[in-house]
Q: What sequence folds into this?
């Protein structure tokens, strides 16, 4: 089993879209939307190189994310309560288009699992103009 598409969306406490992206590992493309107080940006069809694909596959390995099935990531001691958090959801799909794993946090009570934070921040790093130092989580 392998993930072929990763779709991520994060909205703030006022339900404004903060960041969303789609990684298509078959076509080796990334589409990213990032919004901030200056407006943000949208970039579609970013062609991923071999090193980026390799790192994304490593960061999104099913061996890592299967341990978070059934919201087990909320039980981890690596999560923390947030006073003003971000609502987020992520969906990993297989080559037949069916979702293999869906994780979501609409209560803003928990940080995402560190593995998801690493994946999200790497996708943002790839898509940033001039690769500024920005981290969503």
A:
């Amino acid at each position: 089993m392998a993930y072929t598409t990763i779709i991520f969306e994060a909205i703030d406490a006022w339900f404004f879209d903060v960041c969303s992206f789609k990684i298509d590992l078959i076509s080796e493309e990334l589409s990213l939307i990032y919004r901030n107080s200056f407006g943000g940006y949208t970039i579609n069809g970013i062609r991923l190189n071999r090193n980026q694909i390799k790192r994304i596959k490593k960061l999104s390995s099913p061996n890592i994310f299967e341990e978070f099935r059934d919201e087990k990531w909320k039980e981890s001691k690596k999560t923390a309560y947030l006073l003003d958090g971000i609502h987020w959801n992520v969906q990993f799909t297989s080559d037949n288009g069916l979702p293999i794993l869906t994780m979501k946090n609409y209560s803003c009570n928990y940080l995402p699992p560190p593995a998801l934070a690493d994946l999200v921040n790497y996708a943002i790093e790839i898509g940033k103009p001039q690769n500024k130092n920005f981290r969503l989580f």
Remarks:
- The mean pLDDT is 79.
- The first strand starts at residue 5 and ends at 11.
